[in-house]
């Protein structure tokens, strides 16, 4: 059995908007006589859109109508209808990542985008998605190395570190190619971000709007930006500048970085020289790339080429956000798709001790989400047991039902996400304990944490698996 | 060709030598007075080498990439990274190999305990085999019941059940004891959820897969499902399978059986298999077919 699903990724960033379609192939890899084991066996980008400047109404507000036009046109060019899509993600990143923009995009793209996910990526999620799209995650797994991917876009640099394919650290800096915009073919500043102005004044350069700049001055600024990147990677002593250029937490720097990859729009000018007019984009992107190419980063680390540069985030969104559940799952009704469901995870140490405390823990945590008059669908997550006995499944089920007492009075189905392979047995048991009256959805082989959100798509492979998107909004918490 | 007897002799000799070597070593450590504590521990028995998780054991000294090797081992039950002593296995590897082989032999030659049968509210019948030896040498007898045993079945079981589920030792009693209880209970619960009635469960001693056909005919079951111990291997002696057939008849083609195999702690967990089997049975009842006739 081989089945394909088409996934769309749309990346609306500070400077560019792009779209890709990916073909994700799933296959039952178990032998004929075994319980099915359906896995993603291949991911292939089948269509890449042109790269557009993000249509903006103001510095921070997305022009939803124009975005819709772009997306519609690209669907037509690719010959793909919304109904062909099984899953996908729209990621709004950088300075445009705001709630209002997400709702504008959601409204404008509804119908076109079908049932897929709209997420305003926090800087951490963006870093992870870009790192996966750039191939840093898979590189770290294949070569057993720690790989840092620096996605340097128009507004921000998002750094993700991978070890054995897993994310171990992320951070975000206000370093990007379009933080200074220049008048076409001159070096007069049209726009400069406040933080960059501060960075410039630190090296005694007065960079303000409407002022014409010397090339050397602009290069001094981009050299300083590259220095801040050296600081964050731990090869230069960190200064005050690093502190204020970070948008959130700093990197932990408690590991050794083996490889560095660069993605994002600026990356292309790190890997190869530009012989044309270096200010042809009306920004400092190209000279920032040159500054990085000449920096000591190139000597201190082994620099690898990513699979994607400017398209890393959009490919990550299209190909690497979706996963599939385990192949033995249980749902009593096809209530999919379910979107933006907050996760409540039971503490693992409580699970490890006695199951009897499970319901208490759950009851306590559910209060955060479940207030009277403000009920919503939630998902309970547990680690579960490897190879559990029937008795253990029963006791876990009973505790879940007990802990969810209040929630069970609502009209929402009981949604349980388990990490270990036991969802089908647990789902059937839950349904039994609920006297076959309450709908139950129980899926496994999915690891989630508190603060995550989960999207579950329409079942695939004859109903055996569901596509799942985990949105990790808080990473370094 | 070397005869089996000759091989046995060689193995015996090697084992004797090996035993001798171990004794000498122990004597040495006693003399040097370094391992007095170890001796005390040995009174409680030797450490059980079969409790070591092979996937986490690396015998390679100073591996270039330990984490990488462990990840590779995680993806296969094959004995990777066992290192060597000269051109041979290390003693630990050899002993583990023999211990696993012994577990496989035990799984075949032990019987499912009466306690297991009683604990699951079952009764026991047996096929026409009179002993384990006959069971191993006469597969045909392992598929048939004599009149006496068939009479017990007919007397104690609900007639014409929608689904008849029973347990049989097959080639691994260990597998049955390890998994059958959890799988059976999960199937019954799952079927209850679908409103499907289950017949009276029982245990068949010296049973081959084909005995299910005789059971099906004897009880007039619409679906018959047997949970049966599989021939053990060196990876696990605890692997159980479920064979399920719609209106099985004696002499029907093997292709009419649906199989769910590899039920053990390192394969499909017993409860997940049970829940999956409940689904298969439901589909089988709807489509009135099994084996290759049934597209799952």
User: What summary fits the major beta sheet of chain B?
Assistant: 6 strands, mixed
Q: Give the DSSP E fraction of chain B (strand runs of 2 or more residues).
A: 5-15%
How far do the termini of chain B sit from each other? 48 Å
The strand line-up of the biggest sheet of chain A is: 14-21-20-16-17-18-19-15
- CATH fold-level assignment of the largest domain in chain A: Nucleotidyltransferase, domain 5
What spatial form of chain A do the alpha-carbon principal axes imply? elongated
In the CATH scheme, the class of the largest domain in chain A would be: Alpha Beta
Structural class estimated from helices and strands of chain B: alpha/beta
| CATH fold topology of the largest domain in chain B | Rossmann fold
Structure description:
The complex is a heterodimer of chains A (477) and B (296). Chain A has 477 residues and is α/β, with parallel strands linked by helices. Chain A folds into three domains: 2-121, Nucleotidyltransferase, domain 5 (2-Layer Sandwich), CATH 3.30.420.40; 136-306, ATPase, nucleotide binding domain (Nucleotidyltransferase, domain 5, 2-Layer Sandwich), CATH 3.30.420.40; 326-445, no CATH class. Chain A has helices at residues 64-78, 99-109, 123-134, 136-143, 194-202, 215-232, 240-245, 268-271, 285-293, 297-300, 312-319, 348-352, 358-366, 390-403, 423-433; strands spanning 2-12, 16-28, 38-48, 52-53, 85-92, 117-120, 146-152, 157-163, 166-173, 180-182, 189-192, 259-263, 302-304, 322-324, 330-331, 338-345, 379-382, 414-418, 440-443, 452-456, 467-472. In chain A, the strands form four sheets. Chain A has an eight-stranded mixed sheet. In chain A, helix 13 (358-366) runs parallel beside helix 14 (390-403) and helix 14 crosses helix 15 (423-433). In chain A, 49% of the residues are buried. The model of chain A has no long low-confidence stretch (mean pLDDT 89). Chain B has 296 residues and is α/β, with parallel strands linked by helices. Chain B has two domains: 4-109, Ethanolamine ammonia-lyase light chain (EutC), N-terminal domain (DNA Binding (I), subunit A), CATH 1.10.30.40; 114-293, Ethanolamine ammonia-lyase light chain (EutC) (Rossmann fold), CATH 3.40.50. In chain B, 45% of the residues lie in helices and 11% in strands. Chain B has a six-stranded mixed sheet, with helices on both faces. The chains are: A alpha/beta (477), B alpha/beta (296). Chain A binds chain B through residues 31, 33-35, 144, 164, 328, 330, 386-390, 393, 421-425, 427-429, 431-432, 436, 462, and chain B through 65, 67-68, 71, 181-182, 185-186, 189-190, 192-193, 241, 259-262, 265, 267-276, 278-279, 296.
């Amino acid at each position: 059995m081989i089945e394909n699903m088409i996934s769309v990724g749309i990346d609306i960033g500070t400077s560019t908007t792009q779209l890709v379609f990916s073909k994700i192939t799933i296959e039952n890899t178990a032998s004929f006589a075994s319980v099915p084991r359906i896995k993603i066996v291949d991911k292939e980008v089948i269509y890449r859109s042109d790269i557009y400047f993000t249509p903006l109404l103001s510095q921070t507000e997305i022009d939803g109508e124009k975005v819709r036009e772009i997306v519609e046109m690209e669907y037509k060019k690719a010959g793909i209808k919304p109904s062909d899509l099984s899953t996908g993600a729209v990621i709004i990143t950088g300075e445009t990542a705001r709630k209002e923009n997400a709702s504008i995009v959601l409204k404008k793209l509804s119908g076109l985008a079908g049932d897929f996910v709209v997420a305003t990526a926090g800087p951490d999620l963006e870093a992870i998605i870009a790192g996966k799209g750039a191939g840093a995650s898979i590189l770290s797994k294949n070569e057993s190395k720690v790989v840092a991917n620096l996605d340097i876009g128009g507004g921000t640099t998002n750094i993700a570190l991978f070890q054995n394919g897993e994310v171990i650290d992320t951070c975000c800096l206000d370093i990007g190619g379009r933080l200074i915009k220049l008048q076409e073919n001159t070096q007069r500043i049209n726009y400069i971000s406040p933080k960059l102005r501060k960075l410039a004044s630190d090296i005694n350069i007065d960079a303000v709007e409407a002022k014409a700049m010397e090339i050397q001055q602009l290069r001094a600024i981009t050299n300083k930006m590259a220095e801040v990147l050296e600081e964050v990677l731990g090869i230069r002593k960190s200064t005050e500048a690093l502190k204020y250029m970070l948008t959130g937490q700093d990197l932990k720097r408690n590991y050794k970085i083996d490889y560095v990859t660069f993605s994002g729009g600026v990356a292309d000018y790190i890997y190869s020289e530009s012989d044309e007019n270096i200010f042809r984009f009306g920004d400092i992107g190209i000279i920032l790339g040159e500054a990085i190419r000449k920096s000591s980063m190139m000597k201190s680390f082994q620099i690898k080429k990513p699979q994607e540069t400017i398209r890393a985030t959009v490919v990550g969104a299209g190909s690497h956000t979706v996963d599939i559940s385990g192949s033995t799952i249980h749902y009593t009704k096809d209530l999919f798709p379910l979107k933006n469901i907050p996760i409540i995870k039971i503490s693992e140490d409580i699970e490890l001790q006695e199951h009897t405390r499970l319901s208490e823990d759950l009851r306590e945590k559910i209060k955060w989400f479940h207030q009277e008059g403000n009920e919503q669908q939630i998902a309970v997550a547990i680690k579960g047991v490897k190879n559990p006995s029937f008795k253990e499944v029963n006791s876990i089920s009973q505790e879940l039902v007990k802990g969810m007492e209040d929630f069970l009075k609502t009209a929402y189905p009981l949604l349980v996400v388990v990490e270990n392979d036991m969802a089908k047995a647990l789902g059937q048991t839950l349904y039994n304990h609920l006297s076959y009256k309450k709908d139950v959805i129980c899926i496994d082989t999915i690891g989630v944490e508190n603060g995550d959100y989960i999207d579950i798509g329409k079942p695939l492979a004859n109903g055996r698996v569901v596509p799942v998107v985990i949105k990790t909004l808080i990473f370094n918490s | 060709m070397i005869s089996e007897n000759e091989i046995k002799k060689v193995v015996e000799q090697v084992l004797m030598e090996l035993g001798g070597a171990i004794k000498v070593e122990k004597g040495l450590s006693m003399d040097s007075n370094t391992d007095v504590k170890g001796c005390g521990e040995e009174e409680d028995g030797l450490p059980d080498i079969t409790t070591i998780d092979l996937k986490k054991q690396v015998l390679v000294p100073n591996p270039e990439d330990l984490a990488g090797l462990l990840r590779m081992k995680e993806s296969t039950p094959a004995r990777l990274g066992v290192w060597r002593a000269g051109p041979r296995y290390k003693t630990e590897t050899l002993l583990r190999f023999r211990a696993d082989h012994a577990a496989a032999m035990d799984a075949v030659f032990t019987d499912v305990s009466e306690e297991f049968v009683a604990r699951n509210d079952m009764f026991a019948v047996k096929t026409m085999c009179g002993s384990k030896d006959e069971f191993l040498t006469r597969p045909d007898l392992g598929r048939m019941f004599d009149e006496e045993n068939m009479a017990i079945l007919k007397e104690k079981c609900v007639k014409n059940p929608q689904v008849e589920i029973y347990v049989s030792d097959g080639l691994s009693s260990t597998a049955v004891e390890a998994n059958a209880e959890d799988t059976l209970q999960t199937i019954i619960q799952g079927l209850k959820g679908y409103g499907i009635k289950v017949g009276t469960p029982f245990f068949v001693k010296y049973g081959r897969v084909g005995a299910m056909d005789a059971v099906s005919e004897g009880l007039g079951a619409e679906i018959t499902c047997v949970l049966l111990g599989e021939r053990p291997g060196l990876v696990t002696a605890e692997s159980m399978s479920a064979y399920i057939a719609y209106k099985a008849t004696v002499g029907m083609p093997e292709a009419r059986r649906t199989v769910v195999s590899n039920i053990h702690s390192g394969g499909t967990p017993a409860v997940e298999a049970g829940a999956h089997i409940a689904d298969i049975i439901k589909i089988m009842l709807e489509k009135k077919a099994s084996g290759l006739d049934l597209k799952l």
